[in-house]
């Protein structure tokens, strides 16, 4: 599974807690959330807008939980 496919799978299966997530899908999802968080935090520091990283965290909360649960079942 490639990076883009893992991100699409994470958002497509955001309420699917059954099944399994492959190792690549899980780690690409973690990489995506960390990189997006770092980029948005840096943008917030430079621009003074202080809510973008919060929106990302809230928007990826349920998909992150779903991917984590599916990975634990593998």
- The N- and C-terminal alpha carbons lie at a distance of 16 Å
| Low-pLDDT residue spans | none
What is the structural class?
mainly alpha
The assembly state of the depicted protein chains is: single chain
Mean pLDDT comes to: 92
**Strand content range:** under 5%
Kindly provide the radius of gyration, computed on alpha-carbon positions and rounded to a whole number of angstroms: 13 Å
Helix fraction by DSSP (H/I, runs of at least 4): over 70%
Order of helices and strands: HHHH
Q: How would you describe the shape?
A: elongated
Q: How is the biggest beta sheet arranged?
A: none
- Please give the count of helices: 4
User: Count the strands?
Assistant: 0
SSE diagram, text form:
Blueprint: H1 3-12, H2 23-47, H3 52-59, H4 61-72
Question: Can you give a write-up of this model?
Answer:
- The structure is a single chain.
- α1 packs across α2, α2 packs antiparallel against α3 and α2 packs antiparallel against α4.
- The protein has four helices and no strands.
Offer a quick outline of the entry.
With 74 residues, this protein is an all-alpha fold. Helix 1 (3-12) crosses helix 2 (23-47), helix 2 (23-47) runs antiparallel to helix 3 (52-59) and helix 2 packs antiparallel against helix 4. The protein is built from four helices and no strands.
């Amino acid at each position: 599974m490639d990076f883009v496919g893992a991100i699409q799978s994470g958002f497509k299966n955001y309420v699917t807690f059954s099944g399994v997530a492959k190792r690549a899908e899980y780690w690409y999802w973690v990489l995506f959330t960390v990189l997006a968080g770092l980029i948005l935090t840096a943008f917030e520091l430079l621009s003074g807008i202080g809510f973008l990283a919060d929106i990302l965290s809230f928007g990826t909360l349920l998909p992150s939980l779903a991917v984590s649960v599916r990975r634990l079942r593998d």
